[in-house]
Design a protein that fits this description.
The chain is α+β, with helices and mostly antiparallel strands and 104 residues long. It has 4 helices and 6 strands, in the order βββααααβββ. The N and C termini lie far apart (52 Å).
Length: 104
């Protein structure tokens, strides 16, 4: 578990847990500036928050000693730094151009 300011942070794993720990659908809708509950209800049903709510909700969770993975907002985790070139279909990228079916 993460430690912040000397307190143990408890990790949440689902959108439903985040909504519950932030005070429910109404509280989450208010925190994120939504006027009705439909948005928050949809997030719970879809299992994902919009990325523009990440800071507001993670700050609210931190105040309550909770954390949640960025993947709940559709934010990918950091890529490993071993290979800076993109991998295509599990293979290393091609070098050079094809010419008449042959590589140069």
């Amino acid at each position: 578990m993460d430690k912040l300011r000397g307190m143990e942070m408890r990790a949440l794993k689902t959108v439903a847990e985040v909504i519950e720990k932030c005070g429910g659908l109404t509280a989450v809708a208010r925190l994120t500036g939504r006027k009705d509950l439909r948005s928050a209800w949809n997030w719970k049903a879809n299992g994902r928050f919009p990325p523009n709510t990440f800071l507001v909700l993670t700050n609210a969770l931190m105040e309550r000693n909770y954390t949640a993975p960025p993947a709940l907002w559709g934010i990918p985790s950091a890529a490993p730094s071993g290979n800076p070139r993109p991998v295509r279909n599990g293979k290393q990228p091609r070098r050079g151009r094809k010419r008449n079916g042959r590589r140069r």
